[in-house]
Write a structure and sequence with these properties.
Length: 553
């Protein structure tokens, strides 16, 4: 009898255990390796790989008609979801800050330009970052590549802003082989870091695109794929200086323009690097439960080989060529694979989207400007986003003829600003370089058509209105034809401006010179120095007070 009861108990336990394993497999469809999740982790949390290219032009991908071959990007995009109404910011720091906080520039104080190497400035420390939120729900967080969100004090470094590890550069650009950067004559230093220290041991003259890819492969090889990982890979390419290994020039000897030829070689190398990252995801067991997001940080720079054709303008401007980006999502977890998303998506949207996918919580007191757009991308639903504040920059060079009168008393049109609401886009002030640069412009033989694409504005113009859905190339200004629409968008600008925080753009600090820091760009602001100064001032104040008391007595 005892033997029989024992056997029955074993069978019952075995059946229940089998049933629970079946339930777990159904709840975690990404677990195709036949391994049970480690304690405290959930295979429903996807691995997140965010790849950010630097200065890649809108046209500079195979599926947008480029002469530059990008077979990896083309394949990943074709099997995923192409984002064809996707916006970023016109420069490096603004796009990166909005990605990592989910907030517009006007809400972080980074409205103007970029963070310069010599400025005592960084992403404000009171902003919660994407990697910090992912760490809260068990993610391992790693960054490889370009930071460009400030480093003047240790608390600004990537490892202090939520990343478990960091390997890359702190500045906006530098030599791809030597990793040296000169901000001005005599102000030069080394810029390659591993965590919080200069990575002299890794300085083997390896081209940065390949070096960063090797680091990504090492991270994936050493991490447990049963635990969720957030990998932020911010490549230096294809930002100037225009450098690439010789073998990548083979297919582009026919390009006459030397900058375009070098740029093409750099992009070919980047495409190969992303292929190697994808292979590593498959090799080490991450791929089936992964989400790969690819994005450029801003539009291309024609003077440095980039092309945004047929869009207008370039990097650094609020024309479509500066802010409409190459972007796609590739994942086995997508429901509508092989589709095109034409709904409005902005770089701030990744913050809430990825935190929600990771089963994280967004604090109610965090005032986000981004939206959760996963159902829009994965299932083809309507985007919750109906507008984008491209920016309001109160200290950019004012338009000479701008005025409150030109803005109907609602807005001073001398101020550089741009906003999108539904189909309409409004620009005020000085929106920047406004040419269309066709492919022929990169031929030394025939620049004439390029000149024909230039527009000379009538004197005094400081307001432009376009229907971007009907006119994505910004050919027909409708501001005179639709004054009521102009007024509506100016009011929306004014509403946004009421929520803006003061601009953070301090003057350069002489203590930032790498010569004072062992020849390395790095944190120079010392907290103890500040305390000594404050203690000194407190002491001085006490002495003054005691003297005043004596006088009073």
């Amino acid at each position: 009898v005892l033997a029989g009861l024992s056997l029955l108990s074993l069978l019952t336990c075995g059946y229940l255990a089998w049933g629970s394993r079946r339930g777990g497999a159904e709840e975690a469809p990404g677990n195709l390796l036949g391994e049970e999740p480690a304690a405290g982790t959930s295979r429903s949390q996807p691995h997140i790989i965010f790849i950010l290219a630097d200065d890649q032009g809108f046209r500079d991908v195979g599926y947008h008609g480029s002469e530059i071959r990008t077979p990896t990007l083309d394949k990943l995009a074709a099997e995923g979801v192409k984002l064809e109404n996707y916006y970023v910011q016109p420069m490096c720091t603004p796009s990166r800050s909005q990605l990592i906080t989910g907030k517009y520039q006007i809400h972080t104080g980074l409205q103007h330009s970029i963070i310069r190497p010599t400025q005592p400035n960084c992403l404000p420390l009171d902003n919660v970052t994407l990697p910090q939120k992912l760490k809260e729900v068990g993610y391992s967080t790693h960054m490889v590549g370009k930071w460009h969100l400030g480093f003047y004090r240790r608390e600004c470094m990537p490892t202090q802003r939520g990343f478990d590890s960091f390997f890359g550069s702190l500045l906006g650009s530098g030599d791809y082989y030597t990793h040296f950067k000169c901000d001005s004559p005599g102000i030069c230093g080394y810029d390659l870091y591993e965590n919080d220290n200069a990575a002299w041991d890794h300085d083997n003259g390896i081209y940065s695109t390949q070096m960063y890819t090797q680091k990504v492969q090492q991270i994936l090889a050493s991490h447990n794929p049963r635990k969720p990982i957030f990998l932020y890979v911010a490549y230096q390419a294809v930002h100037s200086p225009l450098q690439a290994p010789g073998r990548y020039f083979e297919h582009y000897r026919s390009i006459n323009n030397i900058n375009r030829r070098r740029y093409a070689a750099m992009l070919a190398c980047l495409d190969e690097a992303i292929n190697n990252v994808t292979l590593a995801l498959r090799k080490y067991g991450y791929y089936e439960n992964s989400i790969i997001i690819y994005s450029s940080d801003n539009g291309g720079q024609p003077m440095a080989g980039g092309s945004n054709w047929p869009l207008r303008g370039s990097k650094g401007t609020y024309w479509e060529g500066g802010i409409r980006a190459v972007g796609f999502v590739h994942s086995p977890l997508l429901k509508n694979k092989g589709s095109v998303c034409k709904e409005l998506v902005h770089i701030t949207d990744w913050f809430p989207t990825l935190i929600t996918l990771a089963e994280g919580q967004i604090d109610e007191d965090i005032q986000l400007d981004g939206y959760d757009v996963w159902e829009t991308i994965s299932e083809g639903r309507r985007s919750p986003r109906v507008d984008i504040l491209h920016n309001i920059d109160p200290i950019y060079t004012k338009a000479k003829n701008g005025s409150w009168a030109a803005g109907y008393g609602i807005w001073n049109t001398a101020i550089q600003s741009a906003i999108r609401v539904n189909h309409w886009k409004l620009l005020t002030g000085n929106p920047g370089y406004s040419d269309w640069v066709p492919p022929q412009a990169f031929s030394n033989a025939g620049p004439n058509r390029w000149h024909n694409e230039r527009v000379s504005w009538s004197a005094g113009k400081t307001v432009w209105l376009f229907n971007i859905t009907a006119d994505p190339y910004e050919r027909v200004d409708l501001s005179a034809r639709h004054p009521e629409v102009v007024k509506q968008l100016l009011r929306r600008l004014s509403q946004f401006n009421k929520t803006a925080v003061p601009v953070r753009y301090p003057p350069k600090d002489p203590r930032s010179n790498p010569k004072l820091n062992g020849g390395v760009w790095g944190p120079w602001f010392k907290e103890d120095e500040k305390k000594k100064k404050s203690d000194k001032s407190k002491g001085t104040n006490k002495q003054k007070k005691s003297k005043n008391k004596k006088k009073g007595n």
